[in-house]
Structure formats: C-alpha cells, structure tokens
C-alpha cells in the first residue's frame, strides 16, 4: 500500500513488510493538480487532487491562504518502495514545486509491525448473516432485539437533540450519523431499564450527551468516566482508565459503553470487565453497544496517529494476541477491535461465566435510510 500525505509535522514512517510509506510536506501553490509515481515496473500511478483551503494556518499571513496539503492512497501489487520515484509535484500552471518534501524511514515501526500478521481488508468476514450463523454454531446466547421504529422516533423527538444539544448535533450531522449515536443511546437506555434510584456510569464518555439525557429523564445519579478528564473524581466526572475506576465496591447499578470498548488497548477491555464486576452491585447491568464482531479476530489501526491520539498513550499500541491487523489510515484510530465468536468465548464468556450472565442482542435490518448505521450486535452482562 502506498500513502502520500501532507502534514505540518513529522509523522512519516515506513514499513517494508507491508509496503507502507508516508511522505509529508507542505507545498505553497494555489492547488496541486496531480502527483506522479512510478513503481519498479515503470507503471505510472497518477492521483489527482485539488485542495484549496482559505482557512489553513492563517498565522502564515498572505501565504497561509495558499497553503495546500495532500493525501492520496493507492494499493499497488508487486510494489518495491526502494525503487519508487517521486517524479514531480505540479500545480495548475505546470510549475514544479518540491519544497519541504521528505521521506522518512522508521525501522522501529517496521520491526514492531513485523510481530503481527497484517492482512488486507476482506468485506466477507464482516457479513452479518454469516457472523450470526457462526455465533449460533458456537452456542452463544443470541436473541433478536425487537426494534420499534415508531417508539424510537417518539423518544428521539422527545429528547430533542437539536434543541438541547446543538453542538453535538453539529458534530454528528453528516451522513445521518446523529441517528447512529442516538440509536446507541436509545438501545442502551432501553436494555438497561433505568430507574430513578439507579446509579449510572457512562464509560469512555468523552463528549457524549447520553449522560445528560439519562440525568434529565431517568436518574440524577450519574457518573461520566474518560481517560481524558482530569484525574480522579470531580463531581460527576471521573478521570481514569476504564480498568482502574476510583469508585467503591458495589457502588453503581448500571453501566453503558457506546462505540468505545473496541478502542481499549492491551487487553484493558478485559480489565474493564473485572473492574465493572467490582463496582457493580449484584444484579447490576452493563450494556456494550455496538459489539464489533467478525468471522476472524481482527484489529483495524492507523499507525500515523499512534503517538498523537490520546494523552499518556504509548507510541505503539499493545494489541491483543491472536488478532490480525488491518492498516487503515482513514479511520484515524489507534485500535478498533473485532471479536470473532471464538475469541469472544475465549476472552470473555468463559473467563467471566461465574461472574456475569450475558445476552447478545442482534438487529438484522431497519427499513429506514436514515437509520442504516444501526448497531448490529449489543452485549448485555448482568452481575450474578
């Protein structure tokens, strides 16, 4: 895979095993029309870009209005990076620009990635029907979630995201993604069966408005936990890792994670479940939605942001053993982990069978275009 990108700082790296290259540089020109590359067989790769941003780096004064960045991704078979030739960078007037163009080789990254099996993306291992069949063959406790679309929209309109949480709406307005988040909130709230006397904690909460919704409509007793918050307990905010939460034993009744546990590195997802068992009262519930599943245990990762995504994070993520890697710069995540049926049983179901009862809910289809990104699987655990 070949990736070319424009950056303002040094985040370039090289991995010989995967033919993975990042070039960075800023080019002062009205626009970059194309970049020409030639592989070892002299086959031309031509990628057209036309990026103009009047607001990029105004600190550059007049030059800031013409500062251009570039990013192109192509997959090339039989690719030999040592023989790649960057021929030219051309603007719309056919003038050649090559200022600040660098190629860095990070052998430390190369050596680290060689410890893992790196595979190409294969959509067939993410097919819902096949995953569900495999889960049933594995005797996982799988139940259909009976989604009521009318009830959901009544709830959505009552919560009124646009009125009560306009900044959140703006952040997730693209491609109906607000409904993606709202569906997660709705499903977790319904499956938790929240009561007025419940003590709720939102794990990896970040900027989520779900705790606000729960506080307004269900229970006033809430916590929000995230490693980005100030360390310790500060009112309802808890700054900590998910596997080391500074709350008393048996102190909460309901827990939810929305699109988050897949990012827990170095088996801290397993550590979180141990911690959740400690802080939950008997009969307390955890809802994890979505539960990311695949036919094979895989982890998506974006190496270019490894050292910049989270504070206090190691430069190189410590991935769970037995998981293949899929390199994907577009997702901008250090880790997105997908369980297979086998790995879910091995890592969670069997080790925690004396601590939690569990159910995995699935949704096959919601016949509505604006609800097309629904959580296919949701994991519910109840403390014994």
Give a short summary of the structure.
The chain is α/β, with parallel strands linked by helices and 384 residues long.
Question: Could you walk me through the main structural features you see in this protein, from its secondary elements to its overall organization?
Answer:
This protein is α/β, with parallel strands linked by helices and 384 residues long. It folds into two domains: 4-105, Immunoglobulin-like (Sandwich), CATH 2.60.40; 114-383, Vaccinia Virus protein VP39 (Rossmann fold). It is built from nine helices and 21 strands. The protein has helices at residues 107-113, 128-137, 149-159, 161-164, 166-171, 177-192, 210-217, 268-279, 341-349, and strands at 2-5, 14-15, 20-24, 27-28, 32-38, 44-48, 67-68, 71-74, 85-91, 102-103, 142-144, 200-203, 222-234, 237-239, 252-258, 280-289, 298-301, 324-327, 336-338, 356-362, 377-383. The radius of gyration is 24 Å and the shape is globular. GO terms for molecular function: S-adenosylmethionine-dependent methyltransferase activity. This is Methyltransferase type 11 domain-containing protein. InterPro entries: Methyltransf_11 (IPR013216), SAM-dependent_MTases_sf (IPR029063). It comes from Aliarcobacter cryaerophilus.
Q: How would you summarize the topology of this molecule?
A:
Blueprint: E1 2-5, E2 14-15, E3 20-24, E4 27-28, E5 32-38, E6 44-48, E7 67-68, E8 71-74, E9 85-91, E10 102-103, H1 107-113, H2 128-137, E11 142-144, H3 149-159, H4 161-164, H5 166-171, H6 177-192, E12 200-203, H7 210-217, E13 222-234, E14 237-239, E15 252-258, H8 268-279, E16 280-289, E17 298-301, E18 324-327, E19 336-338, H9 341-349, E20 356-362, E21 377-383
């Amino acid at each position: 895979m070949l990736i070319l990108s424009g950056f303002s700082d040094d985040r370039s790296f090289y991995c010989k095993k995967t033919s993975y290259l990042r070039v960075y540089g800023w080019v002062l020109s009205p626009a970059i029309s194309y970049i020409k590359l030639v592989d070892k067989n002299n086959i031309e790769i031509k990628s057209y870009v036309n990026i103009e941003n009047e607001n990029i780096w105004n600190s550059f004064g007049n030059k800031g209005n013409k500062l251009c960045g570039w990013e192109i991704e192509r997959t090339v078979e039989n690719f030999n990076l040592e023989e790649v030739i960057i021929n030219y960078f051309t603007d719309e007037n056919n003038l050649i620009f090559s200022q600040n163009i660098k190629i860095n080789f990070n052998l430390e990254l190369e050596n680290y990635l060689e410890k893992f099996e790196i595979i190409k993306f294969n959509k067939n291992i993410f097919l819902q029907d096949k995953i569900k069949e495999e889960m049933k063959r594995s005797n996982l406790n799988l139940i259909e979630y009976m989604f009521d679309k009318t009830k959901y929209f009544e709830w959505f309109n009552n919560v009124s995201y646009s009125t009560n949480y306009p900044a959140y709406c703006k952040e997730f307005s693209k491609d109906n993604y607000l409904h993606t988040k709202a569906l997660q909130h709705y499903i977790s709230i319904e499956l938790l069966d929240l009561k007025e006397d419940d003590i709720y904690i939102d794990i990896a909460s970040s900027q989520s408005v779900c705790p606000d919704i729960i506080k307004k409509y269900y229970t006033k007793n809430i916590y929000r936990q995230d490693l980005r918050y100030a360390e310790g307990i500060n009112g309802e905010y808890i700054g900590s890792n998910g596997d080391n939460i500074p709350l008393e034993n048996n102190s909460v009744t309901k827990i939810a994670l929305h699109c988050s546990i897949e990012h827990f590195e170095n088996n801290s997802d397993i550590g979180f479940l141990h911690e959740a068992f400690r802080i939950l009262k008997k009969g307390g519930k955890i809802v994890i939605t979505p539960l990311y599943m695949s036919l094979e245990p895989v982890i998506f990762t974006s190496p270019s942001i490894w050292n910049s995504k989270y504070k206090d994070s190691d430069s190189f993520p410590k991935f769970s053993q037995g998981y293949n890697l899929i390199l994907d710069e577009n997702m901008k995540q250090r880790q997105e982990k997908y369980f297979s049926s086998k790995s879910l049983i091995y890592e969670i179901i069997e080790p925690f069978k004396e601590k939690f009862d569990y159910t995995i809910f699935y949704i096959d289809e919601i016949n509505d275009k604006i609800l097309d990104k629904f959580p296919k699987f949701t994991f519910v655990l109840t403390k014994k």
